[in-house]
Amino acid sequence: MIGTQFARRKTQWLFAGVTMALVALALLAPLPVTGAAPQERHITISAHTFAFEPGTVRVNRGDTVVINLESADVMHGLYLDGYEISTRAEPGQPGELRFVADRDGAFHFRCAVPCGNLHPFMIGKLIVEPNLPWLRAVAATLIAAVGAGAVFWK
Ligand SMILES: [Cu+2]
Q1: Ligand 1 centre from 94 Cα, in Å?
Q2: Quick one: pLDDT band at residue 137, thresholds 50, 70, 90?
Q3: Cα 86 to ligand 1 centroid, rounded to whole Å
Q4: Are the C-beta atoms of 104 and 80 separated by less than 8 Å?
Q5: Which residue of 31, 43, 53, 59 is 20 to 30 Å from 88, comparing CA positions?
Q6: How far, in Å, are 14, 125, 150 from residue 74 at the CA level?
Q7: How far is the CA of 106 from the centre of ligand 1 (A)?
Q8: 50 phi and psi, to 5 degrees?
Q9: What is the rounded CA–CA span in Å between residue 24 and residue 30?
Q10: What are the pLDDT digits (tens) for 97-108?
């Protein structure tokens, strides 16, 4: 009787120890992803009929994004879906767009100035990667909750 109680307590301590180790790992482990500390990102996008170069731009959530729009031929615009902001540029007169990427996901940006027959297909994509520290905090919380459940359920 006393022997089984002792064995059960030992199992509980083992669970607690493993849980603490997992939480520590989730919080401290170096993950193979670039740092998520918010930074200012300067991105030059060149517009010409009928494409943006680069066509896909990646930033991290929380970054301050400064887009410098240059035009190689006629007047073009850049309207960013989801953030509802825009700028325009013509040769020699670049446009600037500055915003904080506070929503993650994939957002299309499109030309905002009718520039020719394929203008409706002049589309690029902004990918805002989720905030890593936040994901780590969520993972640590979930692991702690599961661990606590395992310890106190008995
Ligand atoms: Cu256009």
Answers
A1: 15
A2: confident
A3: 13
A4: no
A5: 59
A6: 69, 21, 65
A7: 21
A8: -130, 65
A9: 11
A10: 999 999 999 999
